[in-house]
Amino acid sequence: MNRRRLLNPLNFAALLTIAALVPSMRLYDADHRALAWALLAAFSFGFLSLSVWPPRLRWAEHLVIGLLPVIALVLIGLDSRPGAVQVLLVIWAAVAFADWPTRHAIVAVVAVDIVYYLLLRHMGDFRAPLQIVLSFAGFQAFAALCMHYARSAEHTRDALSRVNADLLATRALLADSARDAERVRVARELHDVAGHKLTAMRLNLRALADEPAFADNPQLRIAEQLSGELLGDIRNVVQALRDSGGLDLATALRALAAPMPRPRLRLTIADDVRVSDPAIAEAVLRLVQEALTNAAKHADADMLDVTLHRNGDLLHVTIEDDGRMREGWREGNGIAGMRERLAALQGRVRLVRNPSGAMRINAELPA
Length: 367
Description:
Elements: H1 2-6, H2 9-19, H3 30-49, H4 58-77, H5 87-99, H6 102-123, H7 129-209, H8 218-242, H9 249-257, E1 264-269, H10 278-297, E2 303-311, E3 314-321, H11 333-344, E4 348-353, E5 359-366
Parallel strand pairs: 1-2
Antiparallel strand pairs: 2-3, 3-5, 4-5
Helix pairs in contact: 3-4, 4-5, 5-7, 6-7, 7-8, 7-9, 7-10, 9-10, 10-11
């Protein structure tokens, strides 16, 4: 995930822009040149670090975003001559609108531009400082709009991916449920039609065998024996059709997790687990779906372990990730909905923190 963010095309565009500033570093006075290089390197490092901060260190990411304009303004203040380093404020504006709420980003950009204007007036070597600030504010607005639409497109793509995975998983359960219903129907037809007629035929053959004229007929005894064996075979087929393996939860759960690059799903289902009730299967599906979402958004987890096993009349579902719960974490609407869904099925769910600091979900449902 971090590597994918680091290789984002927008990062390449920003780094190319920063690289274009390298020739202008020689324009700084010799006394300030080393500091200018250090500030440009610090800005570049801080910008790249925004792609690797895990969700549990979100505060550190916000701190870096707040420091970037300070670095850019100090770099601008080192040289009173007009230069190109002001473009760093455009890059920072794009970062602010990408990571902060729009209202907060607008306030931050306006505040930084005011400081930039006051800095230009203090330096005194810039003509029409307000015009310069407004010009770069236009570039900042353009960068902000680009980031806004890019972020909206990314959120829409992720939402569509989750919806598609949800549909695939639900379709797998519905298809499996339909196959189970068809097996039960065929079993019922075999039992009620073929089984009934074979039983009647056996009774008639036995009645014929009791007649003195047919008592010594070997073909009649063979026919009666074959009808009995056929009736037994049909009963075995009917039993096999009724004793299905239940709904294919494994396929549905893997389809649900497939579009998510992280966390990966590691699924363990005990051999004695049989779920034939679509409502129970749907509850397990939504439970794992919520766990996947929370592990990706809040725990920065790479792996999600899901284990299903039976204990008497109860189906136990244990879900555990390898991330780390944030301090002060509170249950949201997703967890509340999870509890309500299981309670409606006479089930329950319990959330605990494991020894490594990650979340563990223990759920019980009627098997």
